Amino acid sequence: MQNRDWDHVFNFAKELVLDAGEQIRSSFKTKLTIDFKENPSDLVTNMDKQIEKFFIQKINEKYPSDHILGEEGYGEELTSLDGTVWFIDPIDGTMNFVHMQRHFAISVGIYHNGEGIIGIIYDVVADDLYCAVKGSGAFVNGEALAPLKSTEIGEAVLGINAVWGIENKRIDSSITSSLIRAVRGTRSFGSATLELAYIASGKMDGYLSMRLAPWDYAAGKILIEELGGKVSSVNGEPLQLLDKQTPVFAAKPGLHEYILENYIKK
Ligand code: IPD
Ligand code: CA
Ligand code: CA
Fold first, then answer.
1. Could you tell me if the CB of 225 is within 6 A of ligand 1?
2. What per-residue confidence (pLDDT) applies to 2?
């Protein structure tokens, strides 16, 4: 881990996240502007844009040599992970934000030369702040989270979007359907970063998506790994943070290997 005052960076990032959360809560009283990006399910609002710009402006002022990759594109187009890179999803779960005004989160993952250092996930409406600094433990609202232990598959709750359980272009649905049958239950909360925070805090045991972007999982990966869990590609290979669309499989230790060997790679 590179010599830099990471506690200082963490405190700065945490203040930005809390400030952004307050901006989002205040926006509930105002009218949202809603557009869609690639398709009608791919929503973006004025708040997604406002919050990303807020992060970028503040980080650039404070740490001008750091790099920023944000979902809404106001950051940089990165071709390398050299130096410090902030992966920012200003609102993860925009559909929930628009339809439900809850179950969405701000996600900030800070990496140095490709190594995960700081992960912060803020469930804005629940006011739950999940965070980790590599080597210093992971916390929710200041309380230390317990190291993750394996769970039997029959007792596991798996986060998975229904789309991966039916015929789709990215995974053989016979694999996902037997996995869905084997676990105790499945959940789909509509915010990948929150689902990863739920694994870190022991509320769920695994999460599988065939298409995530780095800002969706960068923070959650740091939290889960800090607690001994595993976050990889769907074949168990390391994730490539520069890939904009990648499969992600996260789970408690032991369960991760078990599912890979007995379901996915079988
Ligand atoms: C989405 C959410 C959703 C996941 C999608 C993401 P967004 O992020 O995390 O749960 O299934 O793949 O794109 O667009 O709400 O930031
Ligand atoms: Ca997202
Ligand atoms: Ca988003």
1. no
2. 65
- C-alpha 98 to ligand 3 mean position (Å): 12
Cα-based distances in Å from 250 to 2, 67, 89, 128, 238: 26, 26, 19, 21, 11
Specify the fold of 153-264. D-Maltodextrin-Binding Protein; domain 2 (3.40.190)
Query: How would DSSP label each residue in 97-160?
Result: HHHHS-S-EEEEEEEETTEEEEEEEEETTTTEEEEEETTS-EEETTEEPPPP----GGG-EEEE
Per-run averaged pLDDT (10 residues), the chain, 266 residues: 88 98 95 89 92 98 97 94 98 96 98 98 98 98 97 98 95 96 98 98 98 98 98 97 96 98 90
Phi, psi of 84 (to 5 degrees): -95, 125
Q: How far is the CA of 47 from the centre of ligand 3 (A)?
A: 10
Q: What are phi and psi of 162, to 5 degrees?
A: -55, -30
Domain boundaries, the chain: 6-144, 153-264
